[in-house]
């Protein structure tokens, strides 16, 4: 008995696995990124190459132009029909004129700058010389006080010097620059025959953290005259090395006896 014929069933097609698809996508992404980076690098290289070529072409053109100028300056080049020597020489002369004009303007500018610099330097040197010529000194006149004081007080006068490197405060002169200084003072006083103790003039170096240091001392005995006031004076001075910020002041045994008539009592200092 014959069995009926039936064709074989087709095989199902095998689909790629998910891991294979992932690897393919990753490979494609890496390829695209590498292709992009390579394209960018190639464009950069091409741009740099073109810049170099333009520079070399520019130099080549300048070289060719100079060769034409050189050839036109010869008799053989002037006879040549391939070169327009008149035009080439005119262009070369125009370039020379422009270059000469720029070079002329530039030295003027440099000269002006040099003059301004020399003037400024001269002004600075003049100011420095004037500062050096101006003495570091101060001269003060006595100021009358209504009561007895431990430190004599002073004031500036219109005819006496007062440098900015010496300051005055509460009877004391302060030096702003270290060095050798001559310190002096004169005090005129009125003596009385009834007094027995001598009138004494002191110049002290003020020391804030310790006892003041005596620099100079002058004494004068009272007059035996029976006059109400016998005018006398003591003057002293000396050279001392002072530090920056040192202060000096004047004191007397009895400030009520001091005479303050013009030119009689004064206190001063100047740097050697």
From TrEMBL:
Detail the disulphide connectivity of this chain as listed in its UniProt entry: 190-229
Source species, please? Dromaius novaehollandiae (Emu)
Determine if Secreted is one of this entry's keywords. Answer: yes
Q: Which InterPro entries match?
A: CD40L, TNF_CS, TNF_dom, Tumour_necrosis_fac-like_dom
Membrane topology is: Single-pass type II membrane protein
Q: Where does the record place it? A: Cell membrane; Cell surface; Secreted
- Grouped into one coarse class, the protein's main location is membrane
Q: Which GO terms describe its biological process?
A: B cell proliferation; immune response; inflammatory response; platelet activation
Q: How does it assemble?
A: Homotrimer.
Record site: Cleavage: 110-111
**Would the keyword Glycoprotein turn up in this protein's UniProt record?**
yes
Q: What does this protein do?
A: Cytokine that acts as a ligand to CD40/TNFRSF5. Costimulates T-cell proliferation and cytokine production. Involved in immunoglobulin class switching.
Entry's family note: Belongs to the tumor necrosis factor family.
The UniProt entry, under Pfam families, shows: TNF
Sorted alphabetically, the keyword list is:
Cell membrane, Cytokine, Disulfide bond, Glycoprotein, Membrane, Secreted, Signal-anchor, Transmembrane, Transmembrane helix
Lineage here is: Eukaryota, Metazoa, Chordata, Craniata, Vertebrata
Instruction: Give the signal sequence positions.
Output: none
List residues traversing the bilayer: 20-46
Q: Which GO terms describe its molecular function?
A: CD40 receptor binding; cytokine activity; tumor necrosis factor receptor binding
Q: Where is this region: Disordered?
A: 107-128
Q: Which residues form the THD domain?
A: 136-272
Q: Which SMART domains does its entry note?
A: TNF
Protein name stated in the entry: CD40 ligand
């Amino acid at each position: 008995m014959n069995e009926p014929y039936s064709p074989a069933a087709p095989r199902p097609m095998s689909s790629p696995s998910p891991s294979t698809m992932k690897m393919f996508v990753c490979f494609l992404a890496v390829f695209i990124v590498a292709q992009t980076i390579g394209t960018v690098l190639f464009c950069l290289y091409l741009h740099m190459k073109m810049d170099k070529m333009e520079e070399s072409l520019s130099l080549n053109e300048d070289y060719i132009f100079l060769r034409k100028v050189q050839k036109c300056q010869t008799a053989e080049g002037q006879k040549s029909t391939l070169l327009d020597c008149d035009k080439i020489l005119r262009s070369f002369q125009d370039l020379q004129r422009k270059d000469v004009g720029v070079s002329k303007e530039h030295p003027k500018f440099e000269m002006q700058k040099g003059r301004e610099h020399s003037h400024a330097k001269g002004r600075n040197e003049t100011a420095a010389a004037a500062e050096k010529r101006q003495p570091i000194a101060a001269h003060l006149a006595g100021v009358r006080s209504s009561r007895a004081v431990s430190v004599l007080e002073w004031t500036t006068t219109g005819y006496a010097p007062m440098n900015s490197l010496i300051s005055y405060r509460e009877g004391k002169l302060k030096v702003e620059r270290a060095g050798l200084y001559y310190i002096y003072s004169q005090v005129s006083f009125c003596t009385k025959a009834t007094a027995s103790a001598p009138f004494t003039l002191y110049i002290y170096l003020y020391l804030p953290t310790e006892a003041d240091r005596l620099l100079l001392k002058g004494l004068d005995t009272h007059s035996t005259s029976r006059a109400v006031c016998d005018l006398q004076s003591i003057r002293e001075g000396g050279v001392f090395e002072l530090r920056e910020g040192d202060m000096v002041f004047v004191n007397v045994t009895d400030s009520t006896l001091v005479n303050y008539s013009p030119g009689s009592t004064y206190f001063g200092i100047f740097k050697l």
